[in-house]
Amino acid sequence: MSQTTFVCSTHGPGLYEITDRIEAFVSASGANVGLLTVFIRHTSCSLLIQENADPDVRRDLDAFFRRLVPPADDPAMRWIVHTTEGPDDMPAHIKAALTQTSLGIPVARGRMVLGTWQGIFLFEHRERPHRREIVLHLST
Q: How many domains does the chain have?
């Protein structure tokens, strides 16, 4: 078993690839086979396994979620009550609820078992910069 926490700084909404940092942790652990849990310690961002080859995928996903859940000051979102942290806060919580804050990834032969074009991303839903804590736990 091995565990660590790292920080990813964001500068606004979008997908931030964190695959390399996670691969380095798995490699350094020396584990041959196991289950990696990736957990983000926040309620206004999330984690995704998504294509990492074409940056248009990231742009399209971000645009889709912005259309699906616009800011609280958008007329379609008049029903939102929680606005104390700004018009992007409650929509960020909704986006995080629709995605995930934890991923389980198998490890075999000392590497994550991801598909050819798959990468791991922090999906930031807030407008201002944040320091996001990500916990990695590898069970063998």
A: 1
